[in-house]
Design brief:
single chain, six-stranded antiparallel sheet, 14 helices
Length: 466
């Protein structure tokens, strides 16, 4: 009797998991609550419905997003193949006809003889796992309240978040080292061993920055994104609205810092903390924000030393249920908690629930979860996911227990391991990342083939979708 896997959620990730497992001869029960139980943002009950932009980002081969797309193509992603078939003109990006794309994925799911699509709300992890050989939870950022409450019990209430409060992250090589200085508070600035980079403001620079911050355009909140979500972590622009000097006595306080250029304490200072172990990117500490992305570029580039900042991730504040992946998930996306292990069947997670952002990232995590499940059911060892690939770098970041204050992340060069030989030119450096990633991807695919983990289904994905 073939193995049977239950998947909760028929979004981008869940649909990919279902199609990949079915292509490997594994029976799937795909549970989707829509349209019986609607969400505030979905308009249909289709699988893989896109609820925000219809863009799947850049196709440039020397971009992190482009690298991710090559991985999806090389691994035979069904959902990505559907996106390619239903693409609409979008310059250097991949954009899709929403209805045609989700309709095509729904048809693939409904027509596959090994997939049973169940329209019902899953309210209990234990009940969902009962009778299955494995469970994959891919319910996304709008997981229903009942299931989220049960998942909090399985994962631990402290390890399940219900909104993003993420500060922007900037690339290290885009910062002006002549204006920034390295120092931790109350440390000797001349020692040069501080854990933080500091951006010092003069009084005039601070006044201009706060004025721009207060007047900047904010993201319009949806009905389900109330101020209650922000009580625990106020956006920097809301702090500034409380008083012109409020940021200077909070996030931007200069206490314990000495600007080596002047020998004095600055009027205000932003601290930047390394986001990755290699110091390739930096987090703007305390700068959770609800500004639009263009306004973040405009206003935050007024900070001394950040005039040419390249953003690896913009700040966000919105409803988003996600797991504290560094504490809960292993490299296979398997949930590692005593409650989960007591369920009998292995429990995996995929998609935005794992704390990754982006459409293609969700599809790729579904593919990765499917490989992990297939390996577990067959009792074989899957090859390690190379950190040199775009998704491998994301998983290394997301499942590293050393990652503190985890917030959702998408693929970007700021979380990739540095090149063996540094390349100063940015374009050449990104091309080198892509070339290194392609070599690692080729070896990874060969390893999957040797382990018998590639699909044998004739309807396997690919660029032509056949």
């Amino acid at each position: 009797m073939p193995s049977s896997v239950t998947i909760l959620g028929a979004g981008l990730a869940g649909s990919e998991v279902a199609l990949q497992l079915a292509a490997r001869g594994i029976r799937v029960r795909l549970v989707e609550m829509r349209p019986a139980v609607p969400t505030p943002v979905h308009a249909s009950g289709d699988c893989a419905e896109l609820v925000c932009s219809n863009s799947l980002k850049s196709t440039k081969p020397d971009s992190a997003a482009g690298m991710l797309k090559r991985e999806l193509e090389a691994l035979g992603s069904f959902v990505f193949a559907a996106a390619r078939r239903h693409a609409v003109p979008a310059g250097g990006a991949l954009a899709v006809d929403r209805a045609a794309f989700s309709g095509a994925v729904t048809a693939l799911v409904e027509e596959h003889p090994l997939i049973e699509l169940v329209r019902a709300e899953a309210r209990s992890v234990r009940e969902a796992a009962a009778g299955a050989d494995a469970l994959v939870i891919a319910t996304g950022p709008l997981t229903s309240d009942a299931l989220a409450a049960d998942l909090a019990r399985i994962a631990g209430a402290d390890h399940l978040a219900f909104y993003d409060a993420a500060a922007p992250i900037v690339m290290a090589d885009s910062l002006d080292g002549e204006k920034l200085f390295r120092q931790s508070r109350y440390e000797d600035a001349s020692a040069g061993a501080g854990d933080y980079l500091n951006a010092p403001f003069t009084r005039e620079e601070y006044d201009a920055f706060v004025e721009a911050l207060v007047g900047a355009e904010r993201v319009i909140q949806r009905d389900f994104e109330t101020h209650d979500l922000f009580q625990a972590c106020q956006p920097i622009e809301e702090i500034a609205r409380k008083g012109h000097d409020a940021p200077r006595f909070g996030t931007l306080k200069p206490v314990g810092l000495t600007d080596p250029r002047t020998g004095r304490r600055p009027w205000a200072a932003l601290q930047l903390r390394a986001e990755d172990a290699h110091g390739m990117s930096y987090n703007l500490v305390g700068f959770q924000t609800n500004l639009t992305f263009p306004e973040q570029r405009r206003v935050f580039r007024m900070i001394p030393g950040l005039e040419n900042a390249e953003f690896a991730r913009y700040g966000v504040m919105h409803r988003n249920t996600f797991l504290d992946a560094p504490r809960l998930l292993d490299a296979r996306l398997r949930l590692r908690t005593p409650h989960a292990e007591a369920l009998g069947a292995p429990v995996f997670a995929a998609g935005q629930l794992t704390g990754t952002e982006g459409y293609c990232e969700a599809v790729r995590s579904g593919l990765h979860a499917a490989i992990s499940v297939a390996a577990a059911l067959r009792g074989v060892e899957a090859p390690a996911l190379p950190a040199e690939t775009a998704f491998g770098a994301l998983m290394a970041y997301a499942t590293d227990p050393a990652t503190k204050d985890y917030q959702p992340m998408h693929v970007n060069f700021g979380i990739m391991e540095p090149l063996e030989r540094p390349v100063r030119n940015k374009r050449e450096r990104y091309a080198a990342y892509a070339e290194r990633g392609d070599e690692a991807l080729k070896a990874y695919v060969e390893g999957l083939a040797e382990a018998g983990l590639l699909p044998q289904d004739a309807r396997r994905g690919g660029a032509d979708g056949r």
